[in-house]
């Protein structure tokens, strides 16, 4: 007997439809044949499925059985086909009526006992089912919780093969899962900006960067507070909108994280990723046999913090150039090509030299000019050109360290940042742009207009610092953000001068 049911294959962060075709009762030796470009995990499903069928009280096939996962040109990976294969076998062996499977998209891993386990990409599967106009989605409970966040499709949670069978057979009713977004967990480990001693210029630069979504690099000796401030950046960022949270959750779901695990920590808040400097190009950019999200995509709508920037491999840093410009990355492999979103704010930190004490009045630098030049050359000019704000983090004095006066708290800074972001959202209403850092050239001309005197001032700075045309646009974007923080409709001279100041390190430190 022949049975067909629907499942899905994950391609990047999107799902593609897969037909699971089961034909049982074929002549020949008793054998389980699985075709359709499966990977090792899919090929091993026959052992899991047969054990699950037996331990759940169902009859196993007594004749040759062929399973086809169509289309055959899409590689299938992971154990998500266990549940649809098992249900297909039950239908093909006349234990379940075939018409009961119609209209459902089914996915789930099976344990040997028949219990279901979560799968990757549940959010993408629910979106696929809605797009195809299907009746509903059947998933393990942990995966169903996130899939239920997609409106317009019914999601049913089944904790075992037996429960899925009885539901489809009409023996037990199941209510669709209700979308219940988890509350953003309280994370006190990030600390508060009030704990930061001194560093007023650095605090200001961070506020400007967060208000406009600008990329930022902090340069200073060890112990000046660079990492401490970077860790507290999430505490001054505005909360993401619901659609942004769903985008982030979809990426993390495709990476194998569910609402019952790590993904719960990012829902309702902006993700912060801080990979170690030993990370590979693929780990940062994304990829694999079937391309999946890397750190830059996992930081979508959030922060990517690269500490000790020059210690990262040159090749890993250079792959950031195009994603920083476009907010997306296209990965091509033999198995296919996928485009992943990666609209993130880059925050980087580094020392001024290998020993870290160049320019420090209290410590003597032990580095030779050649060592310093080689150290700085690890960061290319084109990459630095894409970082909007460069700010020095000088060493703190003993008096500043001993000060008992608390700094400005994160909540106060966040209120100013939120007000600036609200102005930007009103300005860019009806477009895909959400922050000043993502303005197009046409929007820069429209919203960052300056008079001739300010134009002359900017031209003088460009000539003295030998800045590129890209730096010209970025200065105007930062100036627009500074004006937004000041609730100013126009870019004033003070705003432009502050924005130019944030590019001065191009010349002083790297050339």
Automatic annotation (TrEMBL):
Keywords: ATP-binding, Nucleotide-binding. Coiled coil: none annotated. InterPro entries: AAA+_ATPase, CHLI-like, MCM_dom, Mg_chelat-rel, Mg_chelat-rel_C, Mg_chelatse_chII-like_cat_dom, P-loop_NTPase, Ribosomal_Su5_D2-typ_SF. Gene3D superfamilies: 3.30.230.10, P-loop containing nucleotide triphosphate hydrolases (3.40.50.300). The keyword ATP-binding applies. It holds the Pfam family Mg_chelatase_C. Belongs to the Mg-chelatase subunits D/I family. ComM subfamily. This is Magnesium chelatase. Residues 212-397 form the AAA+ ATPase domain. It comes from Termitidicoccus mucosus. GO terms for molecular function: ATP binding; DNA binding.
């Amino acid at each position: 007997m022949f049975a067909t049911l629907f499942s899905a294959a994950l391609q990047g962060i999107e799902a593609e439809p897969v037909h699971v075709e089961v034909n049982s009762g074929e002549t020949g030796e008793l054998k389980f044949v699985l075709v359709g470009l499966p990977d090792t995990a899919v090929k091993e499903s026959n052992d899991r499925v047969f054990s699950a069928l037996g331990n759940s009280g169902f009859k196993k096939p007594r004749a040759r059985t062929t399973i086809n996962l169509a289309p055959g040109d899409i590689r299938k990976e992971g154990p998500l086909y266990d549940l649809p294969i098992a249900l297909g076998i039950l239908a093909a062996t006349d234990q379940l009526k075939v018409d009961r499977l119609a209209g459902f998209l089914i996915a789930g891993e099976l344990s040997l006992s028949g219990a279901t386990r979560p799968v990757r990409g549940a959010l993408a599967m629910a979106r696929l089912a809605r797009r195809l106009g299907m009746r509903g989605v059947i998933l393990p409970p942990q995966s169903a919780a996130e899939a239920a966040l997609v409106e317009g499709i019914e999601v049913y949670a089944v904790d075992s093969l037996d429960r899925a069978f009885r539901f489809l057979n009409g023996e037990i009713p199941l209510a669709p899962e209700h979308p219940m977004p988890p509350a953003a967990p309280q994370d006190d480990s990030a600390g508060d900006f009030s704990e930061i001693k001194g560093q007023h210029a650095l605090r200001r630069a961070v506020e400007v960067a967060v208000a406009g979504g600008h990329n930022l690099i902090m340069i200073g000796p060890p112990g000046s507070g660079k990492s401490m401030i970077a860790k507290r950046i999430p505490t001054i960022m505005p909360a993401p909108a619901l659609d942004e949270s769903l985008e982030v959750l979809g990426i993390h779901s495709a990476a194998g994280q569910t609402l019952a695990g790590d993904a719960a920590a990012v829902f309702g808040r902006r993700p912060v990723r801080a990979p170690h400097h030993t990370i590979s190009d693929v780990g940062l950019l994304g990829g694999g046999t079937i391309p999946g999200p890397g750190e830059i995509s996992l930081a979508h709508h959030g922060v990517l913090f690269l500490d000790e920037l020059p210690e990262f491999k040159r090749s890993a840093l250079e792959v950031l150039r195009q994603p920083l410009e476009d907010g997306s990355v296209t990965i091509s492999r033999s198995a296919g090509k996928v485009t992943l979103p990666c609209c993130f704010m880059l925050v980087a930190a580094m020392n001024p030299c290998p020993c870290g004490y160049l320019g420090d009045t209290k410590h003597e630098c032990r580095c030779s000019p050649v060592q310093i030049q080689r150290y700085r050359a690890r960061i290319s000019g084109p990459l630095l050109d894409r970082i909007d704000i460069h700010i020095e983090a000088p060493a703190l004095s003993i008096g500043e360290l001993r000060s008992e006066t608390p700094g400005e708290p994160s909540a106060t800074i966040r209120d100013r940042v939120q007000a600036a972001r609200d102005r930007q959202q009103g300005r860019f209403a009806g477009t895909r742009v959400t922050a000043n850092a993502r303005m197009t050239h046409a929007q820069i001309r429209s919203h960052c207009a300056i008079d001739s005197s300010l134009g002359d001032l900017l031209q003088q700075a460009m000539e003295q610092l030998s800045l590129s045309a890209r730096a010209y646009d970025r200065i105007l974007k930062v100036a627009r953000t500074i004006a937004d923080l000041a609730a100013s409709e126009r870019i004033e001279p003070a705003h432009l001068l502050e924005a130019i100041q944030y590019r001065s390190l191009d010349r002083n430190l790297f050339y």
